[in-house]
Please model this.
Amino acid sequence: MSDQRPHILCILTDQHRADHLGCYGNPDVRTPHIDRLAREGALFTESYVANPVCMPNRASMFTGRYPKAHGLRENGNALSLDEVVLPGVLRRAGYQTASIGKIHLAPFGLSPNKATHAYELCESKEIWETDYELPLPYYGLERVYLADGHGSYAFGHYKRDLEKEHPGASAKLRMENALVPPTGARESWKASIPEELHYNTVIADKTIEYLRDRDPSKPFFLWCSFPDPHHPYSPPAPWCHEYDPAEIAFAPRRRDGEMDDLPAYFRECREGRRSTGGLVGDVRKTTDDHYREIHAHTYGMISMVDHNVGRIVRALEDTGLIDNTIIVFFSDHGDLMGDHWLINKGPFLFRGLVRIPTIWRLPRSLRKNDGAPSDVGKSSDAFVSTVDLCPTLLDLAGVAIPEGVQGRSYARVLTGDADKIQDSAYIEYDETYLPDRLRQFRTKEWALTYCAENEYGLLFDLRNDPDELRNLWDRPERQGAKKDLLAELLRRTSVADDWLPAKKCHA
Model:
């Protein structure tokens, strides 16, 4: 007898701001297929990361735990094999599990001579230049098609297959082989690789292939992870021509003199005098015209992903799977994109970086009132976090949530049985290059960032300053509010401490 539990399809983009989608109110970018998921499901306007860079946050998605608990605190290490992960829990519960695209639970740049354990090298670009084979299951994933890296440094199964079938094609991802000479905009060009050979297309191809040839008797968990629109901003044709930079409405959240109110490392990073795990180089060389081009190429990358999301959803319809598949679309973090005179990511916990798109489309069987029209097309301002993804999916699948999971299921919000599960977001960022540990507490009224190793911090009154342009940390009239928020932050960061290993006896 066929297992009737819901299938799970996670569609993930990389470095994708929430406001870079049509359904989130962006008037320029065209995303009809992702917008359709929002019309048929639920869109969350207050969805935040557990950490605003790739590896820690992806590990939080897989474990339901904050970085200081699962141990992958910043890019450059690997998630411990001792961690209990979402695909592994589902696999033990009878799900077939697969990943197609980017995973990034192990570092890209680790050399074999620096690795302590073999698993730390599983996503190393260097080792994938050999005849390396990924050990399976990989973090609970029985089947993996790896397309790691971004743009010119894509690697994994994708590059290996591409070079085997189309020798030399991967070079067409690089800047020196751009369709037209680059303008000098930061990491921005028009890639000459044909659309059909680009990793976004291939990831969709492999996802559709999986949907058609999986075991039909078992439910599936499928992690479909696109590396775009992460920098470099280098879409292929026709997507690189989709948007005219001159027509982009570039209106960054920034003001003259803003850097004077921020910790000194903000200016040092902007001027290229300090590198972080997310930003390297002098940002001052990026002009507003450059930013318009970067936005145009970013929107082209997003529209290309959207086109392939449409292909995948059509495949779900063609195979009859859509009526029993949970679809969740989200990203691992945002991109500053010129806000606050910065770009990319790092220890700059502004809204454009820490807020992500999150859209759920539930199958009819899981909707309240069996999918009545009032239960779809909803926009929720409930606070949710990437650390909540794991328990929410397990809850919807009817699988027990493991000990040690710190996130909270918001399945009841999705089904219409609750309006919210929490009133705030807690975010961590550890940065060896500073060195410092940042902790942020967010409500609808306030955003407070505490820096553990320094006297400075950030405090924004979101009711009167929604763009986070005036840091109130040292303002005498705001010390009472700061004191109360620090107390709440202490509570949240204490709750995020690890309870594992669990107590086994009295003494």
Q: What stands out?
A: The chain has a mean pLDDT of 96.
